Amino acid sequence: MTDSDPSAASPPVSSSSATDTPSPPMLCAACAGATASWSSPPPWSDSSPPPAYRPIRAPAINAPTATASIVLAPVPQPLPVPPAEPPYRFEIPSKRISSPDDIRRFHSSEAGRHFVGFVATLSRSVRGRKLSDPVPSPLPAPLSGLLSLLHTLARWIDEIPPLPHASRYGNPAYRSWHARLTDEGHGLVVALFPPSDELHPAADELLPYLLDSFGNAYRIDYGTGHETNFAAFLYCLARLGLIKEDDYPALVLRVFATYLDLMRRLQITYSLEPAGSHGVWGLDDYHFLPFIFGSAQLIDHKYMKPKSIHNQDILDNFSNDYMYLACVGFVKKVKKGVFAEHSPMLDDISGVPNWSKVNSGMLKMYKAEVLEKVPIMQHFLFGSLIKWYVRIHPFGMVVYKMAELSFHLIHS
């Protein structure tokens, strides 16, 4: 063996001696002193398996389940409101929906199609319009009457303060406020009609819609079903010719915006419980329509995009002009924590590229998640202005037509 042979220079180092070499001590980042040696945790075993992973945004039990059908559904289109023709046969409205078959029957009926079309028409009427934009002055009498009605209800909140109570929701003073509405509601509705008008008997049919527009006095709650009844109240006024299509921008920007402000006061003052809330998987614990109208307001806005809701300066400076931003600001005010965690639906929608897509999606979601849900629509009311479609057997229709013909022959 020669001196140049490297293998003879030193004996081979065994693997055991290599692993036994102490590693340099770990140093503290604060004082640069030596710390205790760190060792990796033991591996998982059958007796101690790793914990099951649960993402922060795990689907809730009440998360929307028909997302694919909503995406594929057609966008509800604006439709004119068919005017009610005399002779009028007003009646006390009643509940008719109790099953999914009833829901399908409602949406296949003329009343169902035109009610959805009415909401879509209101949305179209405020495209690109701010809440502060001018409207015809003076307002038509029915619209100024609606504003007066809402201001009266807001004044009652000051006159009926909340009572001390320990519960999170349901201040009992709300029952006193709603009892006053029940007592004086008929007069408030009659005041919307012209003096000595043949429509005064319609107040009996319109009153239940109005009473159910501000929440339930027994449960002390409010939700999208009550909001829908207010839309139905406006739809009935449109059918009676008191609200014209030219009035729709002012109806949304003045009347509905005032209604929204009133409901926010009622919700906060009397701690109204959300009725049928979707929890984090809902847009808002209480409302849906302002997201439709608010997204329509922002269509083709030059600077603000759906992702702008994450900019607090935009919310602070433009919430007074755009309902959508005001609703997001309210959600951030009443819900604490990371926005993406307490409002994942709104957070996901902020990734949509433009407001037109947001608006069309909101219309489809309103139809699917509000107007097609039995727990919500079972409280919807039907009368002579929003008719319930009654399916008649063909033989029954023949008998009905013969009776109708006999009636005309006798009275001709």
UniProtKB/TrEMBL annotation:
- For the region Disordered, give the residue spans: 1-56
Q: Which domain of life is it from?
A: Eukaryota
Which reactions appear under catalytic activity for this entry? [protein]-peptidylproline (omega=180) = [protein]-peptidylproline (omega=0)
Entry annotated with the keyword Cell membrane = no
- Keyword Glycoprotein present in the record's keywords: the answer is no
Mind listing the GO molecular function terms for this protein? peptidyl-prolyl cis-trans isomerase activity; protein tyrosine phosphatase activator activity
> What's the Enzyme Commission number for this chain?
5.2.1.8
Gene Ontology BP term (one) = mitotic spindle organization
- Where along the chain is composition biased (Low complexity)? 1-21
A Pfam family that the UniProt record links to this protein: PTPA
Listed A to Z, the keywords are: Cytoplasm, Isomerase, Rotamase
Where is it located? Cytoplasm
Any one annotated GO CC term: cytoplasm
* Entries under CDD domains matching the protein: PTPA
Q: Where is the composition biased (Pro residues)?
A: 40-53
UniProt record similarity statement: Belongs to the PTPA-type PPIase family.
Record function comment: PPIases accelerate the folding of proteins. It catalyzes the cis-trans isomerization of proline imidic peptide bonds in oligopeptides.
Instruction: Tell me what this protein is called.
Output: Serine/threonine-protein phosphatase 2A activator
What organism does this protein naturally occur in?
Answer: Musa troglodytarum
